Recover the amino acids of this structure.
């Protein structure tokens, strides 16, 4: 038994260190984000850092009357005196030649052609492999059939020989032996 065993007796019932690490990390993150939000509401340095490029002071705080930041409104634009010349219709686009297509499109087409060739090559290889396998299986089956027929013929010959020997034995038993 370990001499300091009593100090670690209830280890199985305590939460693991990983759980405490995760809990501490979550608490620190919550504390940090909460203080960022408080600083942002008060208009401190954090607000200017994050939102300084779009900061607009409130009208009540400035005490100045509202000024329009856009002096040119749609209604204030004068109407044109003359009608502009009508734009001639755009001719239909001419078919783009192969060499003028974007590089990415050409590469995509080349990759598609390469992939189609590779697919065809794999299909041919699989077909040849399948045919070779089927031929091998058929030749094995034919060889086994021939061997089975040969074994059957040998068994028939052995049965005939045994039948002939049994018949000879029966004839010998029917004839009495002579001891002269």
């Amino acid at each position: 038994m370990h001499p300091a065993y009593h100090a670690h007796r209830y280890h199985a019932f305590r939460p693991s260190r990983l759980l405490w690490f995760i809990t501490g990390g979550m608490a620190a993150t919550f504390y940090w984000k909460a203080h960022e939000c408080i600083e942002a509401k008060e208009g401190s340095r954090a607000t200017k850092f994050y939102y300084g490029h779009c900061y607009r002071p409130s009208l009540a705080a400035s005490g100045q009357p509202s000024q329009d930041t856009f002096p040119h409104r749609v209604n204030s634009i004068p109407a044109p005196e003359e009608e502009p010349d009508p734009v001639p219709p755009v001719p239909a686009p001419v078919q783009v030649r192969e060499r003028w297509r974007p590089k990415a499109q050409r590469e995509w087409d080349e990759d598609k052609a390469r992939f189609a060739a590779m697919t065809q090559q794999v299909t041919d290889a699989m077909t040849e492999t399948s045919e070779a396998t089927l031929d091998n299986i058929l030749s094995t089956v034919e060889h086994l059939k021939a061997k089975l027929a040969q074994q059957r013929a040998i068994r028939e010959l052995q049965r005939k020989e045994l039948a002939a020997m049994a018949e000879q034995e029966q004839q010998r038993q029917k004839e009495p032996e002579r001891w002269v």
Remarks:
- The CA atoms of residues 85 and 154 lie 108 Å apart.
- Residues 12-54 form one domain.
- The chain has a mean pLDDT of 78.
